[in-house]
Specification:
Blueprint (H helix, E strand, L loop, with lengths): L2 H5 L8 H4 L3 H12 L13 H6 L7 H26 L1 H4 L9 H4 L4 H22 L2 H19 L7 H21 L5 H26 L3 H4 L8 H24 L4 H27 L5 H6 L2 H17 L1
Helix pairs in contact: 5-8, 5-9, 5-10, 8-9, 9-10, 10-11, 11-13, 13-14, 14-16
């Protein structure tokens, strides 16, 4: 049994101290757990468009981008609450997901639904307070896509991968809307391919971890094979690098073009490292492979340095 599967046998909440805590403290801990703090960093994608354009756009663009990140964090948490209510029965059979707050009974389903509604209202209210109706629409589309995925589309192979990837792209578009930085076509292509690559990797690691039992917990997995997912991940990575090189070559100025072309080297190295990690460390969450592996971090920082230098 893998390390990740063994973690499922630990007491919910992570420690005996929490188990002995007052009920309100345990409730808050359950709410925080259900909101998926480990997923919050993905909402930093709202800064992708301003970074790619080397501009925060409007006055106080940084503040608008930060609010957009918070908005998507709250909206995503609301989706997680609903998702855990819908999947509670199936999660109880999963070696890891059975410790989720709703599945384990630490957070009542009715509480999760109420928190989801409040979160969605708060996210939309923040968009309107900013005076950004486009951002409000993007958040609404993100939530609608997420619910379509939760209630139906997650059972349709390939389509479900596209909808998971769309969530990442909508975050990037939300940042562009909040800062009023028009995203380029190449930006959207590279961002979409990167998001698809991550979605495929998530499915591969789940299949590698659970084997034939993966289809019990996620029925769509019966349509996938490890080989198909590995090939798909590598195709997405290859096309992503090709699109990035085409974008870099299209930049004006010899110095800018050279640095952006050079930045493709650490980006390719990061993708190769990610490919290796998904194959040999499938027990780790994909988010940890991206953000906690030392070699990956070095590749990412090298890419960022060259990319920023080109800007």
């Amino acid at each position: 049994m893998t390390t990740r599967a063994r973690a499922a046998d630990r007491p919910p909440g992570g420690s005996a101290v929490l188990a002995r805590s007052p009920l309100p403290v345990r409730w808050v801990a359950a709410v925080v757990q259900t909101s998926r703090p480990r997923q919050w960093p993905k909402n930093l994608l709202v800064f992708a468009a301003p970074l790619a354009a080397a501009s925060l756009g409007r006055d106080d663009g940084l503040g608008y981008a930060l609010v957009a990140a918070v908005v998507f964090t709250v909206a995503a948490a609301a989706v997680y609450f609903v998702n855990d209510v819908v999947d509670a029965d199936r999660d109880r059979l999963h070696p890891v997901k059975r410790n989720r707050a709703v599945a384990s009974g630490r957070l009542p389903r009715s509480h999760a639904v109420v928190l989801a509604v409040l979160g969605l209202l708060a996210a939309e209210a923040a968009c309107l307070w900013l005076g950004e109706p486009t951002l409000a629409v993007l958040v609404a589309v993100y939530v609608a896509f997420s619910f379509m995925y939760t209630f139906a589309l997650k059972h349709i192979p390939v389509v479900e991968l596209a909808f998971v990837a769309a969530g990442f792209v909508l975050r990037a578009l939300g940042g562009a809307s909040a800062t009023r930085v028009p995203p380029s076509g190449w930006f959207l292509v590279v961002c979409s391919l990167g998001a698809l690559l991550v979605a495929i990797a998530k499915r591969y690691t789940e299949l590698a971890l659970l084997g034939p039992e993966a289809a019990i917990h996620r029925p769509v997995m019966r349509w996938y094979t490890p080989g198909l997912l590995r090939v798909s991940q590598r195709i997405a990575a290859g096309v992503m690098i090709a699109a990035y090189l085409l974008w870099a070559y299209s930049q004006d100025g010899t110095w800018t073009r050279t640095l952006h072309l050079l930045s493709a080297l650490p980006l390719a190295a990061a993708l190769l490292r990610f490919d290796w990690l998904t194959a040999y460390q499938p027990a780790k969450p994909v988010e940890d492979l991206i953000a906690r592996d030392k070699l990956m971090i070095c590749c990412e920082l090298a890419w960022l340095a060259l990319f920023a230098g080109g800007l």
